[in-house]
Amino acid sequence: QGTFGNDRYGAEEIAQSILGGIGVGYRFIDCAPVYRNQPEIGRVLRQAMRIGVKREELFITSKLWNDKHAPADVLPDLRNTLADLGLEYLDIFFIHWPFATAHAPGVAGDSRSPDARPYSHDEYMATYRELEKAVGAGLIRHIGTSNMTIRKMKPVLADAAIRPAANQMEMHPCFAQPEFFAYLAAEKIQPVAFCPMGSPGRPARDTDPGDVHVLSHPAVVEVARARNIHPAEVCVKWAIKRGQIPIPSSIRRAEYLANLRAAVENPLTDAEMAALAAADCGCRLIKGQVFLWQGAESWRELWDEG
């Protein structure tokens, strides 16, 4: 269950949806300090555990934000997250983006930080080494990467003393990333999918006139019509059948309950999966253009496509 949405909902609304989600059976909770709601989520996690949910039943993740990549900042930031969430350890701690470029909340898509610079493997590994120390200290169970590419992942896997357990990435029927997905599967790294429904409510800076609307794609709509379910449920079923972990989010009980049921009931058939393959048009929705450096010509350079 995702916790992003601070651009649309208050921290307490999101926290209460997490409490409700745990009540109906969610156990994977995906957090991040940049979402600005971890203290509120921490309170409902403690509430859930007081009424009988055991910590070991929950799988709780968080992320290192871009302005904390300096090695001296990593462990203090992790400890702050643990304090916010009221936990002794995280199941996975992701490096949120592979760029040490921060930006103010709510900036426009064409905003550029003067401190932005291209990806550096050496700098990334200096950050990564601190997460390896955190594993040794028992503060995290696993390390996660996020918003990576095959070109970036290969040297990380070659140099890491502790391999990442998961990679968080945008994936939905219109952006399946088949080559990267297959690479992760071969390396036994679990793909975790954000924007599993195409994030129709994403911030305006992450929209482009050429973007596809996943929930309206004819292939998705046809499977939903044949099953008499919402297209969002088709996206969840597609992710589960494929072998990735989707992290949908909603503050509405009917929606997060439907998402959970979609994940565990009536899986898609091979024929339906084949039909949904027609939806993959390679449309990346979260382009990350606010992390571009001076002189970069396109957001595609962030993804090693430039």
Question: Keywords, please?
Answer:
306 residues, alpha/beta, 10 helices
Mean pLDDT: 95
**What about the largest sheet?**
7 strands, parallel
Count up the helices.
10
Q: Give the % helix.
A: 25-40%
* Residue runs with pLDDT of under 50 for 5 or more positions: none
Kindly name the structural category: alpha/beta
**What's the total count of β strands?**
7
* Portion in strands: 5-15%
Shape: globular
Q: How do the strands of the widest beta sheet line up side by side? A: 1-2-3-4-5-6-7
How large is the radius of gyration?
A: 19 Å
Terminal Cα span: 33 Å
How do the helices and strands follow one another from N- to C-terminus? Answer: HEHEHEHEHEHEHHEHH
Give an account of the 3D structure:
By secondary structure, the protein is α/β, with parallel strands linked by helices. The chain has ten helices and seven strands. The protein has a seven-stranded parallel beta sheet with strand order 1-2-3-4-5-6-7. Helix 6 links the parallel strand 5 and strand 6. Helix 1 (11-24) crosses helix 9 (253-264). It is globular. 40% of the residues are buried. The model has no long low-confidence stretch (mean pLDDT 95).
In short:
With 306 residues, this protein is α/β, with parallel strands linked by helices.
How would the blueprint of this fold be written?
Layout: H1 11-24, E1 28-30, H2 38-50, E2 59-64, H3 71-85, E3 90-95, H4 121-136, E4 140-146, H5 150-159, E5 166-170, H6 178-186, E6 190-194, H7 218-227, H8 231-242, E7 245-246, H9 253-264, H10 270-276
